[in-house]
Amino acid sequence: MDKVFVDTDIAFDLLLQREPYYIFSARLFTLAERQKVNLYISSLCFNNLHYLLSKHHTKAESRRILSQFKLLVNVLAVDDKIITLALNSPFSDFEDAIRYYTAIENNIPIIITRNLKDYKAATIPVMTAEAYLKGI
Predict the structure, then answer these.
(1) From CA 125, how far away is CA 81, in angstroms rounded?
(2) Does residue 108 have a pLDDT over 90?
(3) Architecture of domain 2-131
(4) Are 111 and 119 in contact (CB under 8 A)?
(5) Of 1, 8, 97, 121, which sits with the fewest C-beta atoms within 10 Å of its C-beta?
């Protein structure tokens, strides 16, 4: 079973049903629900998702949505080592560096994102949800 790290944008596509990306994120998370793939997300992403959701929903509704979402993913800690790696990395986007090193430090071999250009320094496969789904 694949272990896949999911970037915040993919989760947000699902949670807000953002078109035209929703269909691919929904298929990816359906695979997780059916236990065909293990999806991972960083604890930092949860903070960002709550912030973004609260712009569209009440805080209580945002928490309810995230509680349901949490059933589909494994939440990974962002620790001192990950922050140090991100601070000293060639990544131009600090948040992406944190996500990347969270995946690396937890032996997650694939990252799913829509921001491929931000992961040019990656040494593991980085792809869109659409590309991942076509490849399995």
Answers:
(1) 22
(2) yes
(3) 3-Layer(aba) Sandwich (3.40)
(4) yes
(5) 1
Give residue 1's pLDDT.
87
- Residue 99 and residue 45 in contact, taking contact as beta carbons nearer than 8 Å: yes
Sign of the C-alpha dihedral computed for residues 92, 56, 27 and 104 taken in this order: positive
* Residues ≥6 apart with Cβ < 8 Å to 32: 38, 39, 72, 73
Percent above pLDDT 90 for the chain: 89
- For 15-22, what is the mean pLDDT? 92
What percent of the residues of the chain are helix, what percent strand, and what percent coil, each to the nearest 5?
Answer: 55, 15, 30
- E strand intervals along 1-136: 2-6, 37-42, 73-76, 110-112, 126-127
- CA 99 and chain centroid, separation: 8
